[in-house]
Amino acid sequence: MGLRFSKLVDVYINQSDAYHYVYMNYPSFWAMIGDNYDYLKPVAIIITLMILFVELLYIVRKKVDLKSADNFLSVAVWSVWTCVLFLPSMHERYAYLAEILIVILFFVKLWSEDRKNLGMICVVACVLQLMTCIQYGRYLFQNSYMNFGMTLILHTSVYLFFSYKLFVNGFQKNDETIDEF
To answer: Where are the domains of the chain?
Structure first.
């Protein structure tokens, strides 16, 4: 009944070969490096997996409570944003999930008792929405309010700032004990 799981995965694997650009109309990490698709595609995938693995190790070692809505959403935003910034052939529509999740995270924080980092989350949400407007404006209407280099610097800076704030003091700790590896 229904399609096999491999068919679902094949759609995304085959779609990644549709465009032979490391970055496309989105200020990703690879826009700073270059656009040698054949060479950088496997490198980009390996680097992305390494970054996500380090995140997983951090979450396990620090006993981050993913049952907490703000922790879960913070990890989800950061993970999706990391994938969009570091995987090859990503463009603005793939950031949609991160943009929606950061807005949800903002409202979760706004309505919770713990409003730590609320201002930072608001700034990140606004910058992500602004980046989307700029990228779509450039693509759809040939507007160039900011050149690509400026959006790249702004976007990368906000991602690094969000990462720093999140991993230095952004998570609530879980009180349960987890065996060390």
So the answer is: 18-169
